[in-house]
Amino acid sequence: MELDKFDIAILRALQQDARASLQEISAAVGLSTTPCWNRIKRMEKAEVIRGYSVRINQTAIGFADTVIVQVTLESHTDSMIEDFGKALEDIPEVLEAFLVSGDYDYIVRIAVRDTRDYERLLRERIYKIPGIRHSKSSFVLRTLKESMAPLPTVASTRAGAPPRGRSPAPRIGKKRLK
Fold first, then answer.
1. What global pTM score does this model have?
2. Which CATH class for the 2-48+159-176 domain?
């Protein structure tokens, strides 16, 4: 899908405040409400915008620790990979899971209350998943960066193409969005 400077500005505005009104977004990007709404709907249909959500502080709700788990499977059959992925989907503490290249097959990010909670999760859920040959866990000491998807900065680009230029940051209300 082709993205122009208005689409990118709309995406930036929504990343900064997905609760902003259509009028605020339209004013921030320099469009009237109808074309702005049409662009949002077009990007939703093309799955450039996959949904809207709330970012929750996991520590504030009792999940103070994050664990990065590297996993190696016994085999790499399609069924084993599919079954492992489905098993992870059923574990609420699993925040993200990536099939990767390198020494391990998967990198999994998990939220837990503390080390005892992680031990419980390992015994009750993770180690019961068939096909795990080896795992290595690392507790996150501090999060240095947490961000959303980078946006292209070109005036006109295809989604997924490397960025070339820079589009201006939209304004919502009196503040400039970055």
1. 0.78
2. mainly alpha
User: CA-to-CA distance for 89 and 105, rounded, in angstroms?
Assistant: 17
**If you ran DSSP here, which 8-state letter would residue 41 be given?**
H
When the pLDDT of each residue in the chain is averaged and rounded to a whole number, the result is 89
- Going by C-alpha positions, the residue among 4, 111, 9, 105 that lies closest to residue 58 is 111
Q: Is 60 exposed, middle or buried (0-12, 13-18, 19+ CB in 10 A)?
A: exposed
Answer whether 118's CB lies under 8 Å from 124's CB: no
- pLDDT for the residue 96: 97
Q: Measured at the alpha carbon of residue 66, what is the angle toward residues 65 and 70, in degrees to the nearest 5? A: 140
CATH numeric code, 59-139: 3.30.70.920
* Nearest 10 degrees: Cα torsion 19, 11, 149, 163: -170
- Percent of the chain at pLDDT > 70 equals 86
> 59, 79, 84: which is closest to 69 by C-alpha?
84
Q: Enumerate the domain spans of the chain.
A: 2-48+159-176, 59-139
Q: Encode pLDDT of 146-162 as tens digits.
A: 988 899 876 445 545 54
